[in-house]
Amino acid sequence: MSETEKSIAAREKVETLLGNLLTLGVVVSLLTILTGIGILLVQHPEYLHSPPVAKEVVGTGVGYPHTPLAVIEGAIRLDGPSVIMLGVFFLIATPVLRVFTSVVAFALSRDWIFAAITTSVLAVLILSFLLGRS
What we know:
By secondary structure, the protein is mainly alpha-helical. It is built from 6 helices and no strands. Helix 5 runs antiparallel to helix 6 (about 110-130). The termini are far apart.
């Protein structure tokens, strides 16, 4: 196998890995959110029969944790809104994990220009999370 064929095969493996990573992240997020909705409806069956109450809770975000620690603590207690937010965090983390995996893949293939560019994208993502606190 020539060097070009090896390079193409390696890129295809990385693309497959990244595609699978994105698919897995979205599926895990979806299942977590649906589980959280199920828990929420079991804990508060009145939401099914009282649209104004459900709209008030969903519209205001009251009762939904907003920090990673609060989400984890609530999810451990099987608090419905916390499990839903955990699913949202999984959804947000999925593309970040994809960028991180791309950095590693570019570094392993010694493609330093793309590794540097992707690292700067990862840095911007992390910086935006750190500075985006309200």
